[in-house]
Amino acid sequence: MLSRLNRMVDGQDFGRSMRCGVKCGNGLLTIAIAVPDEGAAISVSPLVGFTISKREIPLAVDRNRVKRRLRHLMRERLDRLPSGSKVVVLARSRASSASYTCLAKAVDELLGRAIEKLGDK
């Protein structure tokens, strides 16, 4: 489970991350990472939020399973995220039928690409 300190709960943070952040995606997931501006107050721990829509994954059982898997995967990868960053993980319809290892590979690939893009900015 992702600790309370690392959970994104503010809707404005979700919107800002998706609008202003660096995005990378594939058929399973889309990951958006936003880092604070220079001089802004930086929280030490990164925040992670998840978006799994009914339109993409209609069955609640499948949505909850995907969310649990993604929470666990992101908890293991918090040390890779820049401090103060806000990350949104958006699950696509194929994520419901993907295995845990397939989701893990997708998360690793997308986080790597997104963090690389942040470095290029």
From TrEMBL:
GO terms for molecular function: 3'-tRNA processing endoribonuclease activity; ribonuclease P activity; tRNA binding. The keyword Hydrolase applies. Keywords: Endonuclease, Hydrolase, Nuclease, RNA-binding, tRNA processing. The keyword tRNA processing applies. SUPFAM superfamilies: Ribosomal protein S5 domain 2-like (SSF54211). GO terms for biological process: tRNA 5'-leader removal. Belongs to the RnpA family. RNaseP catalyzes the removal of the 5'-leader sequence from pre-tRNA to produce the mature 5'-terminus. It can also cleave other RNA substrates such as 4.5S RNA. The protein component plays an auxiliary but essential role in vivo by binding to the 5'-leader sequence and broadening the substrate specificity of the ribozyme. This is Ribonuclease P protein component. It comes from Scrofimicrobium canadense.
